Amino acid sequence: PPIIVRDFATALGMKPFKLISELMEMGIFASMNQAIDEPVAIKVGEKHGFQLEIKHRGEAAQQIQQSAKEKAKVKEQAAAEAEVQNLAMRPPVVCILGHVDHGKTSLLDAIRKADVAAGEAGGITQHIGAYQIEHSERKITFLDTPGHAAFTKMRARGADVTDIAVLVVAADDGFMPQTDEALKHAQNAGVTLMVAINKMDVKGANIERVKQQMQERNIAPEDWGGETVTVPVSALKGTGITDLLDMILLQADVLELKANAKTEASGIIIESQIEVGRGPLATVIVQRGTLRVGDSIVCGPNWAKVRAMFDDQGKNIKEAPPSTPVRVIGWSGAPDSGAEFKSVKNAREAENLAEEAEHLIRKNTGTTDAAPKEVSVESLFANIAATQAKTLKLIIKTDVFGSTEAVRNVLENIKSSKVSLEIVSVEVGLVSKTDILLASAAGAVVIGFNTKLENGVTPVAKHHGVRIETYGIIYELADKVRDMMADMLDPDL
Ligand code: GDP
């Protein structure tokens, strides 16, 4: 009997998304409703302290052994108690989202400049994907890849690293398409939302209009009787930055962000690259525990004996407690952004675990024939029709930013009263495996405009029954989308 991802996640008490991303780490690309092989299930179960008993005869498909479960529970309880005792406040992790040109990058720069401690240290600012500042003698961590592309990617892997999202809205422009998209992403992620009304210095700045627009979107500002903390700023002149940081700290207090610093470190990869002379580097944010030089960590098929750690000023760091972003040197290979790392006993264990993951990826086994190998357009539409009612969802990838706007405009002009069109995301870049997983989870079709597929995407898409269409001409794209919408209405399907 098949072990379905969704049911298995429930049995283990984890979010399906989390399980999917864990499987990905093992090189297994399975969606919610697909089955995984027994050995894989057993391995995942063990990782979470469960022992799996597969019943081949009899009616029960699989059952989690009761005694093991209870034992695990007792262990968990003891761990939980220790955990509560060791919980301590941790800095908030903040990301900045908003429409292009509304000042995300400028705001990130202004915030960095406002950091007195860093100014005194005289380090050289490096973009490592995240930085930490000190304000009112407290720390705040910022992800400094502006825009929601990075944010979405991490979430697609089940990584929730952000606590607070600051939505930047230019006071002269007001809400724009990407502002709304970013808002949707933040709301879906369930992070705390704040609004920074930027460019207060420009002529034509209209703070009231922005607040009106916020109210229309059910995120009314505090001074309008709503709950959204709203701070007027000018990233260019540096005004309002202190207020913004004060408000972030206040929100952090409300959220009571805590973590246990006295345990083995685990966290999320923010970004990675390979640098000549230093080998693979990865910026990580520690979420639990404290990461130290000399620790052995593993992340999917990659592992590291932490040789050195640096902050965003290029300064050597010996210890990284929760919420600290650090660049780690000593990796066997570059780990994926959004992937989870954890500290293990020693280098040998790290290497073994990484090798196992690598082995699984090589063999690319783990998925059973319960998954559809060839997917017809018909079954796809039937699928969409059955599960998604009458909404055609699209995930769009384009070559350059200008194209994203063009595609968006054309699609927004397609009108149909019976089928609605939902653009799940529009991003610049190659069609990636992450897009396929997102599409599989959302029941969306992937559209590439003037772009190509990353290596290995086609089999993953086939496996997940995700349809990919690529076009080079905008009218063809629009026509095809219209056809797809019409097909969804076909009563024969
Ligand atoms: P991003 O695309 O959201 O990262 O926006 P940028 O930070 O690159 O800013 C886009 C443009 O707006 C740049 O030319 C900035 O100099 C300008 N800009 C950003 N913030 C302000 C501001 O507070 N006031 C004014 N007048 N211009 C700003």
UniProtKB/TrEMBL annotation:
Protein's cellular compartments: Cytoplasm
UniProt KW Signal keyword: no
Entry keywords, A to Z: Cytoplasm, GTP-binding, Initiation factor, Nucleotide-binding, Protein biosynthesis
Binding site for GTP: 98-105, 144-148, 198-201
GO CC annotations, alphabetized: cytoplasm
One GO MF term attached to the UniProt entry: translation initiation factor activity
Domain of life of the native organism: Bacteria
Region G-domain, residue ranges: 92-240
Domain Tr-type G: 89-258
Keyword field contains Coiled coil: no
Main localization (coarse): cytoplasm
Function summary: One of the essential components for the initiation of protein synthesis. Protects formylmethionyl-tRNA from spontaneous hydrolysis and promotes its binding to the 30S ribosomal subunits. Also involved in the hydrolysis of GTP during the formation of the 70S ribosomal complex.
UniProt record similarity statement: Belongs to the TRAFAC class translation factor GTPase superfamily. Classic translation factor GTPase family. IF-2 subfamily.
The protein, known as: Translation initiation factor IF-2
Gene source species: Rariglobus hedericola
